[in-house]
Amino acid sequence: xxxxxxxxxxxxxxxxxxxxxxxxxxxxxxxxxxxxxxxxxxxxxxxxxxxxxxxxxxxxxxxxxxxxxxxxxxxxxxxxxxxxxxxxxxxxxxxxxxxxxxxxxxxxxxxxxxxxxxxxxxxxxxxxxxxxxxxxxxxxxxxxxxxxxxxxxxxxxxxxxxxxxxxxxxxxxxxxxxxxxxxxxxxxxxxxxxxxxxxxxxxxxxxxxxxxxxxxxxxxxxxxxxxxxxxxxxxxxxxxxxxxxxxxxxxxxxxxxxxxxxxxxxxxxxxxxxxxxxxxxxxxxxx
Length: 287
Fold this sequence. Notes:
alpha+beta; GMP Synthetase, Chain A, domain 3; five-stranded mixed β-sheet; 9 helices
């Protein structure tokens, strides 16, 4: 029913880099005078505060994206296209915030705006993080005043950044699930264009439904005769009908890879359920 979706995480990371350099360009074009000559009137760019900034930016980004994914994958309040553009803009915004924090750190260290660009380079960004603070008579006292407490806060924030990596992996997985769900919903909508459809003398396929929360595709049939024995019919579903569908369903990535299932439910004309069966990824593994 669906093709395996293409990952878009790399495009989002490019959006983050775009936001980072867009803010750097703005900073260079609007500020007058070198950064290292600016007065140090606060400790907002200290090593401790920079790590706190990074933790807040990364965790804020991951939580925002996770919330958007829930809107897309489980409630259907946002389409996949809308999710793509909104998420891209959010990555741009957080990329700009990342550069803002890097500029604070570079100024605190008495370095240039070019030095702040190290923030976007893995490993090299440690030079920016741990650059010695600029000696400035106008610098206000550090808060908190005790150096061990500032170190503890920095370590705690760094631990939060590491934990955010786990959240990022979860977010990426959920984002991938959202793409699969969107493709399933689109395929179901296309299938419903030709329904209801009579399949034989007594069977009508009425509608196909996609349940995002349960990851379930439901085929609803109406049986137009009252002469069926429910027990024999259920036995036929399990022993003959279900095995006959496995070959086609198990070639669908939604079923055999991404946790979706296909349920077949048969109702009589008085809307009484007379039989049902389901195909899951486990069935495909043992098929």
